[in-house]
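This section describes the prediction task in plain terms. A model, or a person checking by hand, is given the sequence of a single protein chain and must write out its three-dimensional structure as a string of tokens. No templates, partner chains or ligands are provided. The sample shown here is typical of the held-out split.
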Amino acid sequence: MRFSFAMAFCLACCGNALAQTNDEPVVIVELGGAMGLNVKGPASSFGPDIAAEFTPIENWLEIEAGVTPFFTRNSTEWGTDLLFKKPWTLSKKAEFMAGLGPEWLHTKESGVTSNSCAFEAVLDFMFWPSTNRKFGWFVEPGYEYSFGRGHERSIGISAGLLIAFFPRDRH
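The expected answer:
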């Protein structure tokens, strides 16, 4: 969790060094909710979702760091991920991205704590109501494969608000 907050802070502070043009945001923050479903069983979990993403290579690469705590009746799982996404602009108001990356899972179930690594794949749909792209919303379905005990597989979806932060000298 500390890693994700440190990563988000670094992304927000890198400012003009990362922005390709003044028309592109320095960082986009995602705030929303998430739901996950274990593929092998009926267990589902819910929780808040926060992430920050930036574009180091315009039209080719977006990097997202995020944290999602999932809560069930008997357990809590904190997922911290780092995703590498390929963006496609569908229109002035819509974007699509496909991404892959590692995830660290910290789970506490029935008093037992465990840590494991996982692999995550996502499809990210971003919608901006206005062409200035300050606020929008996203829907991000995903798949996760854990390398920990039991090799759990899950599908999930997160959705919520997008907040774009632009360079100060934007016209």
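For orientation: Residues 3-9, 11-20 have pLDDT under 50 and may be disordered.
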